[in-house]
Design brief:
It is a single chain. It contains eleven helices and 13 strands. With 442 residues, it is an alpha/beta fold. It has a domain of 257 residues: Vaccinia Virus protein VP39 (Rossmann fold). The longest helix has 20 residues.
Length: 442
Amino acid sequence: MKYKVVSLFSGAMGLDIGLHQTERFDLLAAIEKVPAFCETARINIALGNITPDATVFESDICALDPLDVLDRLKLKPGDIDVLVGGPPCQSFSTAGRRGTVQDPRGTLLWQFLRYVQVLQPKFFVMENVRGLVSAALKHRPIAERKLRPLELEEEPGSVLRLFAKDLADLNGAKYSMEAFEVNSVNYGAPQIRERVLFIGNRYGAKISFPDPTHGPVSEIQPHGGGDLFSGKNLLPWATLRDALSGLNDPDPQIVDFSERKKGYLAKIPPGTNWRSLSEADQKESMGKAWFAKGGRSGWWRRLTYDLPCPTLMTLPNHASTSLCHPEETRALSVREYARVQEFPDYWKFSGKLAEQYTQIGNAVPTRLGKVVGEVVARELDDLKRRRWKCYPTTDEPFKITYVQSHIRTRSWFKDGQVEVWGDGGDSSYSLPKTKKKSKNIG
């Protein structure tokens, strides 16, 4: 049996591809407002690369009535098995200036909630950046936080507390929700990418997320004992070499570095960054960033085949977050980007070159989509066997489970020397301090 899915904020459809790869889901509709992204969906649906005949709604979700979606799909509330989507997350990202819900994009979380209320899916899956966990409804700059105690809206986590409360207060079906902070690299993806997955359902089912299946070589014990987290049975992390192996890309499409940037990057060996430049070049090329205490590892970064790729950005050619090819002095191509996110080679991307990078860079890694799809399909199967009988209700608070999501920074500089990551090198990622823990929100 296949379960019916509606997708919000579909983008390049990374999450939808992952669900499709489980062979347990049929995509009924994809809702997306960017024309180029919608064309990506239409092209791949027409080619049969995902569920044939899926409907694409090209609309701003704020303006699209979910009842109209049900009417067009000839469905009624409760008929959809799974609602999935990743509301745009820039306002919650710790990588930039945090605006939280003062930024209109923050309200898209509540648009997702509006669709849950009207469509009443059996399950929903919402994906977002890790920064959402600590986001506040009202942002107070760090420099001003010592002046007076934080108000409730300014406290870290206040966005999620309000979201969970509003979910619990929805009219109609009562939903429970759990969140899992995970990293795609720990499940076999060739990319270090932290994400938070929110899984809700209207049957009171308690969700568990699978433990990591992959780990850094330094954590794996081929003959050791202990549990999964001690390294037993873990596979090694997939690397950029694994991602790009066998890629046939005779005419690579690239938003490339400027000639000035290439001048600096040409001096960087694979697996290192700005620290490989002379001090004069460092200061000249980095400006004020050279004096910063942290957040500089992406400057003039040249990748190595021997490690997973860092988190993909919307564009690879920025000096401070550069994703330079290991051997050639150029940015990663569109198709290389797609390989890192594990899009199938047959998947087509529409739009201008920058729009194609954006679609891929913003996507959910298809690997995570498949893992979460397997979790949800298993729960739906169990409920079907129970004849959709709800589990006993409890008043447990909303809970977030951290599943070894944070990959501690690798060494770039040690004992006054640049750490070059090469074949046979002894550099390694630090072992995680925390394997798994849960905390209540609210």
